[in-house]
Amino acid sequence: MHSDLSPTISRRALLVGGTAVAASALFPGIPRAAPVEPKVIELSAAPGRVSLVGSPDTETNVWCYGNRIPGPDIRLRQGEPVRLVVRNQLPEDTTVHWHGIRLPNAMDGVPGLTQPPIKPGEAFTYEFTPPDAGTFWYHPHADSLQQLGRGLAGALIIEEPEPVPVDRDLVWVLSDWRLRSNAQIAPGFGNGMEAAMSGRVGNTVTVNGVVSEDEPVRAGERVRLRLVNTSLARIMALRFEGHRPTIVAIDGQPCEPHEPDNGRLLLAPAMRVDLILDMQGEPGRRYRVVDDFYDDLSYWLTQLAYKDEPPLRAHPPDSPLRLPRNPLPEPDLTNAELRELRLQGGMMGGGGMMGMGGMMGMGNQASWSINGHSMTGDGHAGMPPLLTLRRGRSCVLSMRNETAWWHPMHLHGHSFRVLSRNGAPVPHRQWADTVLVRPKETVEIAFVADNPGDWMLHCHVTDHQVSGMMTVLRVA
Known about the structure:
Helix content: under 10%
InterPro entries: Cu-oxidase-like_N, Cu-oxidase_2nd, Cu-oxidase_C, Cu-oxidase_fam, Cu_oxidase_CS, Cu_oxidase_Cu_BS, Cupredoxin, TAT_signal
Largest sheet: 7 strands, mixed
Structural class: mainly beta
Keywords: Metal-binding, Oxidoreductase
Oligomer: single chain
Pfam family, one: Cu-oxidase_2
CATH superfamily of the largest domain: Cupredoxins -  blue copper proteins
Protein name: Multicopper oxidase family protein
Radius of gyration: 21 Å
């Protein structure tokens, strides 16, 4: 945004060898294969210093993975097991949530609910086999406001078995920061007034860790662009001037290829969208990527900067844009359990709340609720489930937003089909793990509750989550 302003691994070899088999049993769509050794990746969370605003003389104090912002792109292959050793070098507890991955409950990274928090100086080993190809991401689920707001986030890419026919595969990790004039992160996380409204929206947006002036492209090339919104609260509405992007996946799940409505791509916190961009601009020219979600606060995120050289090809490739589907179980809508969640509270909102205490260490009372119940913080032991779903049963979940604010609602451990908005069918066969629910809107989603355990469901405007808009769904 352009503005003025080292423990050893503790898992046994038997566990390692069984990872792929266990995953294929949990998700029957994955072909059963002989056990293979997992790919081992080490990741450290620690304080660091980086240049967010582009000046090498002005560095920002951050918390980061692998001593960089964003954290390292982790690239894995669909159906192949991985072992991720996370070391905590922060001054407080942490965890890692592998956002959007359908994995075993014990690997989901919610402190107290699915694992003990990782203490400073200690490590935790996450093991899973990703069943789905697509664009995912990783971030803490402990002291989320501070840890995510100080930079702890990274892209997690699960590659298809066969390469997608594009010239380049690009990832843009989009992050929102509230910086002071000296480029340091402003204090004030957990402000009660902000929490009851739109959350902590910053004044600086980075692309892959820097304020971006331009992104180099070549005329005639076809690019797969993976967008990941890691912001605490900023919702984006992106327009690619002079271009016609095609959406081919949402939250890692392929959809019917389509252009965004009115050329405006909505991307709320935690959401990901995969685009196919055919670069049909003129060599030597620049085309802005504009975010105009907030009234009177439009800005340009970056520019597509065309190299001054002949086009790679005269016309777009003839290869199909559709991505191969993932092995998601199709919900049985005829025999599904019907459940309702009412999103309540906030400034200018209504609805009663039964709080479970204040925000994490901040002394503020809950501002939000789901069905009249508020769960605050980041997850803890003893969180009672709001709903219990029978394992293997299809569920249609209606989320009715009774508030005056937007809520990107994220369900752990599952992907769901987005069926309707205010009774109107949603086109293009859209699956997601985070759905943006507009003020006063009702959204219906459907999924098969095939992943056992206690799973968080919460708003991914992080201020909303930690001040009450969070609950637990139990699959048993």
